[in-house]
Amino acid sequence: MRLLIHAIENNIEQYTTEVYELFIVFSRRGMLMFYDDLDLDIRELLQKAFLLFNDNQKQTIIEIITSFKSGDEIRIYKNDDKKGFTLILVEVSSIY
User: Fold this and answer.
1) pLDDT one-digit tens code per residue, 28-46
2) Segments of the chain assigned E as strands
3) pLDDT-based confidence at 21, cuts 50/70/90?
4) Distance between CA 16 and CA 1 in Å, rounded?
5) Contact criterion met (CB below 8 Å) for 37 and 2
6) Is 19 exposed, middle or buried (0-12, 13-18, 19+ CB in 10 A)?
7) Residue 15, phi then psi, degrees to nearest 5
8) Which of these, 19, 24, 9, 22, lies nearest to 61 by C-alpha position?
């Protein structure tokens, strides 16, 4: 898979639709919330292709990215000018 991603990366203008579809598949399967080399490669590929997407594709990608929730999230809040931190454990779920 990583070899395919690197091949696409070298011809990004020709494969924007494939990059978009690959991102959709990975997001539907919850495969973008891990921190391995494949996930990093997908995110870097998306970054390079994003400006080449049409407006609908861009909007879909933005919606997916903004809906991501990590397993551990830290919230910062203010109470009477004092800052506090809360670690919130949330379940990672697919948006689809």
Assistant:
1) 887 766 667 887 888 889 9
2) 72-79, 82-89
3) very high
4) 17
5) yes
6) buried
7) -125, 30
8) 24
**How many beta carbons lie within 10 A of that of residue 23, not counting itself?**
23
Q: Which two tokens stand for residue 10?
A: 């070298």
Which tokens is 55 given? 């407006």
pTM, rounded to two decimals: 0.65
**Region of 70 on the Ramachandran plot (φ > 0 left; ψ -120 to 50 alpha; else beta):** beta
Q: What is the pLDDT of residue 5?
A: 86
Q: What is the per-residue pLDDT across 56-65, written as a single tens digit (0 to 9) for each?
A: 999 999 988 8
Q: Are 24 and 32 in contact (CB under 8 A)?
A: no
